[in-house]
Amino acid sequence: MAAVCPVGFDIHKLKDEVRRTYASVATDPSREFHFHRGPEYAARQLGYDFDELSRLPRLVTEPFAGVGNPFKMGRLSPGASVVDIGSGGGMDCLIAGSDVGPTGRVIGIDMTDEMLARARSGAAQMGMNHVRFEKADMETLPLEDKSVDVVISNGVINLAPDKPAVFAEIYRVLRPGGRLQFADIIIGRELSEDARNNIDLWAG
User: Fold this and answer.
1) Whole-prediction pTM value?
2) Among 67, 87, 103, 158, which residue has the fewest nearby CB atoms (within 10 Å)?
3) Three-state SS across the chain?
């Protein structure tokens, strides 16, 4: 297997397109997109607790565009240190923040300013000083080695052209005995070269 999915386009352009798409979601979640969004979708189709989501600010739940529910793999322990890769509007981070409590810490990693603004405002509204958000690339996490107990992610790793680099970073920051809880989309067949090099398919 190749270390990096072979693509013939500018990787920086891909990231710009992804950033532009999710900036649009953050700016106006009610716009027409080809993927589902919002707390009703999260509860109805992904198994989130709607009562729990209703206690969160709408500004973090409205732009939610995950593809699964990483908390189905287990809720988080009080005092745990957690990082969310591709934290978006911050919904999963605030759920994690409730689980780990003020003795824990949650760090959301995202590269979209508009999503980060929503997430930071949501954490402030909830008084969750132990939840913070950093602008960074998932292939270069701004975290120390072996510094977190749990990594979560929801529908984001599929957007990375260099997935082995992402998983290497996850392995680097996890403490011994730590775990990864993520939901994502996969394709059960080999993609054509044309499909792999279609930036619109990647960024969507």
Assistant:
1) 0.89
2) 103
3) CCCCCCCCCCHHHHHHHHHHHHHHHHHCCCCCCCCCCCHHHHHHHHCCCHHHHHCCCHHHHCCCCCCCCHHHHCCCCCCCEEEEECCCCCHHHHHHHHHHCCCCEEEEEECCHHHHHHHHHHHHHHCCCCEEEEECCCCCCCCCCCCEEEEEEECCHHHCCCHHHHHHHHHHHEEEEEEEEEECCCCCCCCCHHHHCCHHHHHC
Q: Taking Cα atoms as reference points, which of 22, 160, 163 lies closest to residue 87?
A: 22
pLDDT in tens, 77-129: 999 999 999 999 999 999 999 999 999 999 999 999 999 999 999 999 999 99
Which residues, in sequence order, are bridge partners of residue 109?
85, 134
Bridge partners of 131, per DSSP, are 106
What is the pLDDT confidence band of residue 24, given thresholds at 50, 70 and 90?
very high
Domain assignments of the chain as residue spans, ordered by start? 11-69+77-203
Token pair in block for residue 18: 């992804």
Structure confidence at residue 185 as a pLDDT band (50, 70, 90): confident
Neighbours of 89 (CB within 10 A): 33
- What tokens appear for 181 in the block? 């809880």
- Cβ atoms of residues 92 and 72 within 8 Å: no
